[in-house]
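During the reporting period the student researcher (J.K.) took over the structure-prediction task from the postdoctoral fellow and processed the backlog of single-chain submissions. One of the processed entries is reproduced below for the supervisory committee.
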Amino acid sequence: MEHTLSYVFVTPYTIAKSRTGGVVSRLLSRIDLELVGAQMIAADASFTSAYAKILKDQDDPLNPGASTLLGSYVENNIGPTGSRAHRTLMLLFRGTDACKKLSDICGALYPENRSLESLTGETIRDTYADLIVDPKNPKKVTYFEPAVLTPRNQVHADKVLTLLSNWLPGQPNIIENVIYPNPEDIQRTLVIIKPDNWKFASSKPGTIIDMFSRTGLRIVGMKVHRMSISEALEFYGPVRESLKQRLAPVFGHKAKDLLEEQFKIRLSEQTEAVLAQTVGVEYATDQFEQIVEFMSGQRPSACKLEEMIEPGSVKCLIMVYEGEHATQKIRDVLGPTDPMKAPGGTVRREFGSNIMENTAHASASVENALREMGVVRFHSNPCAEIIRSYLNMR
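J.K. obtained the following structure tokens:
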């Protein structure tokens, strides 16, 4: 069957209430679609107006007032308030019958939300949306918050995707829409939800986002990324030498013990030093290659030079968090490198398997965050290119 592309917009209200993780968990664990793009956007007046018009022009005979309700919501809530823009999270999904699957999991606009007794919590809107009507006039909506926005059919999806393909290029991948009272305390830090969370459909990525939300920090940028071998080598470059210094002496000593036991001889300290510089360094090098392979999908030694810059075969989700003392707050929730040494309730304790597959990365300092953003080209988001490529094949 044909693979189609569709989107979900997580509304500014849902993001502000730190419900992003819960929404992402539902979307990733309940449908067999691939998350191929993610971008935090700040809709301007022109995009808001064009998007609202597309929604209002939709014709739904079963719910004739729905298009007007949605269009008006977008005009009043997605676009800027005065000079201040609002964060909306755009998620792109690809697969067979993408629109229907996303629409089903997001849930109907109404009538399900009209009565408390009809709520089941099964869909995203059952859990997070609100639609309140006037008891004396059920056709009059007094409060409306849809939580998420997604098209009900591919025709409408393609119209919005076309709008996005023209608007997204040039839009920043980090949203700057807040003036802080104590800007000297504000930091940005980078978080990577690693490839071990994407092996199969799972709520883990969303749950991890939900755990980070306890910091009170704001997600100001997001992208789906496939790290190339070249990027992984640069990203983890500082680790290479520390692995040699830390592991080579340990495994040199271990090699000496094994040889002494096997051959019933005593070896000198000079021999142990040689073993450290040979066996130990080889082991440390292998560990570094495993890290690169884990993040990119292939070992550097097994890759042709001209393929080093190609996107990797495994994906991760990269986010930038912003707020007071962001670096330390995120690392406190993440936990130490070894999941077995991490305190209960931390991300790595909950989801990490070992030092290698420890579920997420967080920058160690503000300076590291800036370096790492540069390595993964965080300011460049592929969503516009993904949309254009899809539309060109239609």
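The committee noted the following: The first strand starts at residue 3 and ends at 10.
J.K. will present the remaining backlog at the next meeting.
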